[in-house]
Specification:
Strand content: 15-25%
Strand order of the largest sheet: 6-7-9
Bound molecules: iron/sulfur cluster
Shape: elongated
Number of helices: 6
Radius of gyration: 25 Å
Largest sheet: 3 strands, antiparallel
Structural class: alpha+beta
């Protein structure tokens, strides 16, 4: 293979240097934002989970409308409710399928006459969770979902172990 011979203009690299500078200057003046200054800035949470922001993170009101979490983002879990009663029938399918033992459920007799059991304890340990979504897929009642809430910050590990009450307040 023969080596390419540069002419005088190319050998100076002047045009390429100017072209490179042009790109730099363009980006300097025409700024397209790809990063946010988290936690001062937060992403706009899409769909139902806008409520998540209001319920769970009152400080995170500075939403950036043009930057959104994608619709299929797998963030913090939520238990869906019909009226005041949860959909979960404490069948433990999600607990069984979870590869990281992140879910713990203790059933009790349901106050809802339409079903036998409901969870007395429903706990998701987010420090174990890999956000694979298996629990959501396994649920026969569409009772558990994953929200686009991504701001999972805590000072101590137990704070990332979320309980039934908190899981239910995410989406109504
Ligand atoms: S998302 Fe995956 S790892 Fe997390 S609780 Fe559900 S099944 Fe377990
Ligand atoms: S969330 Fe779904 S899979 Fe898990 S215990 Fe409740 S009904 Fe069963």
């Amino acid at each position: 293979m023969t080596k390419k011979k540069y002419n005088f203009k190319e050998a100076l690299y002047l045009i390429e240097i100017l072209r490179g500078l042009g790109v730099t200057i363009k980006h300097f003046f025409v700024r397209k934002k790809f990063a946010i200054n988290y936690p001062e800035e937060t992403l706009h949470i899409v769909g139902n989970t806008q409520q998540t922001m209001k319920v769970m993170d009152k400080d995170a009101q500075k939403l950036i409308d043009r930057m959104e979490v994608t619709m299929n983002y797998r963030g913090k879990h939520a238990l869906l409710v019909d009226g005041d009663l949860g959909r979960c029938v404490a069948c433990k399918m999600c607990e069984t399928v979870c590869p990281f033992f992140a879910i713990y459920i203790e059933p009790e007799e349901s106050p809802d006459p339409r079903k036998e059991r409901s969870p007395r304890i429903f706990e998701v340990d987010l420090t174990r969770c890999a956000y694979c979504g298996y629990c959501v897929e396994a649920c026969p009642e569409n009772a558990i979902t994953m929200t686009s809430f991504y701001s999972l910050v805590a000072r101590q590990r137990p704070e990332l172990s979320i309980q039934k009450k908190e899981l239910r307040t995410v989406i109504k």
